[in-house]
Amino acid sequence: MSWFCEQEEEEMPVQIPDDSDFSSFKDQCLNADGWISRYNKGGGDGVILKNNTEVKMTLIHNKTPKGQINVTAETLYDVLHDTSYRKKWDTNMIDTYDIGRLTVNADVGYYSWKCPSPLKNRDFVTMRSWLPLGNDYLIINYSVKHPQHPPKKDYVRAVSLLTGYLIQSNGANCSTLYYLTQVDPRGSLPKWVVNRVSQFVAPKAMRKIYKASLKYPEWKRKHNPTLKPWMFPEQNTLPCINVADLTVQRADSLENIDESGLSEEKTTQSDDEET
Questions:
Q1: Is the pTM of this model over 0.90?
Q2: Strands (DSSP E) along 64-174, which ranges?
Q3: Top-confidence range, 12-21, 117-126, 191-200
Q4: What confidence tens digit (pLDDT) does each residue in 27-64 have?
Q5: 3-class secondary-structure state, position 249
Q6: How far is residue 179 from each of residues 46, 114, 125, 167, 248, measured CA to CA in Å?
Q7: Which H or E element spans position 182?
Q8: Is the peptide bond before 118 cis (omega within 30 degrees of 0)?
Q9: What does the pLDDT read at residue 264?
């Protein structure tokens, strides 16, 4: 399937990723060819970019600090799935919820993200799919249009062309987390916004995931410890969605808000941007 079908002139039907799509995503995470290292503090604690930061669409490839971390791959996988727990650690998140399920390993969800003031906040509606495969765990998503969840008045609807995680188990209590995203935030943004997202948000989000994973086992023991619908599909109580009711969200069909004149000095920092 094509991850760039938003560039087509007519609306494209949603396709649920198959094994070849997960394999392609894994290859992109592990293949560093053509990437440019930016903001790297050493040991993987930085980002590498495919595109120059002057372009609007930013492709970010990030790996957990110091490469391997002392958290099991299964725990990282649970943390990234558990929307109830995400509300505890994702301080840039305004809201998130699951809309409905497509298959045993695919659903549609909503996520809104707090941008530094006076920028407008962004939100997404995405189709997410996941696959545990041996020592690898993969989660990928891209933006879709859902008839009951149109763009909201107070948000800019952003577009995920392809975003996801690859978690690799490296032993009993050791794993590596890769994060790859290509997002069109919409709006005419000044260069400093793209730079800030690349330099601060991605690597600090990775560190937050790591810290959240250390605390997750204890938290989960007190909050529905056996509830893991991403692992046990029979626990999933979401309403079913017909994939035919969805289309790929094209960026050029959304309103383009001009924020290019906003000054960096006038913005307030979010938690993920503080140094």
A1: no
A2: 93-103, 106-113, 121-133, 136-145, 155-157, 159-169
A3: 12-21
A4: 888 876 766 665 555 544 445 555 443 333 344 445 55
A5: coil
A6: 11, 20, 19, 9, 22
A7: strand 175-184
A8: yes
A9: 54
Residue 132, SS3 per DSSP:
strand
Per the CB < 8 A criterion, the answer to whether 119 and 193 are in contact is yes
Q: For position 178, what pLDDT does the model report?
A: 86
Is 196:167 a contact under the CB 8 Å cutoff? Answer: no
Tokens of 91: 């301080």
Question: Could you report the per-residue pLDDT of 108-124, keeping only the tens digit for each?
Answer: 999 998 887 777 889 99
The residue ranges of every structural domain in the chain are 11-253
Superfamily of domain 11-253: START domain (3.30.530.20)
CA–CA separation, 107 and 16 (whole Å): 9
Residues in the chain: 275
Q: What is the DSSP string of 52-84?
A: -TTSSSEEEEEE-TTS-BSS-HHHHHHHHH-HH
- 75-103 per-position pLDDT tens digit: 999 999 999 999 999 988 999 999 999 99
Q: Residue 164, class by beta-carbon neighbours within 10 Å (0-12 exposed, 13-18 middle, 19+ buried)?
A: buried
7 vs 118, 222, 251, 253, CA distance in Å? 30, 46, 8, 10
